[in-house]
Design brief:
This protein is mainly alpha-helical and 180 residues long. It has eight helices and no strands.
Amino acid sequence: YFRADNSADAIEGLQMLASAQIRNGEIDAAIATSREAAAKAANVPELDPSELMYLRAYPAMALTVAGRYAEGAPELDAVLQDWRASGLAQGTVYARIANNLAVAKFSLGDPVGAERVLTEITTIQQKVNPVRGENAIALRNLAMVRIQLGIYDGAALALLDAQKLDEATFPEKSLGRATA
């Protein structure tokens, strides 16, 4: 029923379907479904602009999940360029999209580009929401990239920051150190 509906609820339903399709390994179906959701969303004025950008990026993020980095990276880059040009605040959703771009860049043999993107998003995330699991993921990705680039001190600092975030987010999983 939601395919004929252009409401925000129908768009959310399509997005949930695309997520389920990804989890089931149906990447091409997920890409088609998420493109349909994004097309519908472009005509729903009550949607938050950052949500619309996320919906536009979702098919490309599905491509990166599938390891199809060369297909996904240009789309992710275009969405992020549009985001910056729009003047929208660069928060958690922006960082999530950018993290996918960084993984794609790294996987395509561009660790310098990946390091640049990851440095940007870890800075954004620190300002917007400093204690969040996604921040730790981005920091671990940054550490991996810096190791590849031979920036060992920077990698160690990123890993320490990721560990601190993990301990703040999940104190019960601390490595036995006393927490304040």
